[in-house]
């Protein structure tokens, strides 16, 4: 049986994963213009992020479906936080961002 503490840890794990996943995506996209091999950079970044997400969700799945769903919610909340951060940063720098 899943306790509230276990579900909180699952949500935290999903949130941390989301911050790392979308944070590294943002860093990768920002570095593409100056990269010597942009396709290699994007492909390597994608592969690392995909493997990391797969491993984390694999461990969450060992706790059960409820843990995976709570982790997914944490992941999506982190995504929204990253989008909000990037939009605010772009607005402060005077860039157009939708």
Q: Please, could you describe this protein's structure?
A:
- The chain has helices at residues 4-31, 38-61, 65-92.
- With 98 residues, it is an all-alpha fold.
- It is flat and about 50 Å long.
- The termini are far apart.
Question: Which secondary structure elements does this structure contain, and how are they paired or packed?
Answer:
Elements: H1 4-31, H2 38-61, H3 65-92
Helix pairs in contact: 1-2, 1-3
Short structural summary:
The chain has 98 residues and is mostly helical. It contains 3 helices and no strands.
The profile of the biggest β sheet is:
none
β-strand amount: under 5%
The class by helix and strand makeup works out as mainly alpha
Number of strands: 0
* Secondary structure tally, helices: 3
Order of helices and strands: HHH
Radius of gyration: 16 Å
Cα(first) to Cα(last) distance is 43 Å
Q: Which spans have pLDDT < 50 for at least 5 consecutive residues? A: none
Helix content: over 70%
Shape: flat
Quaternary: single chain
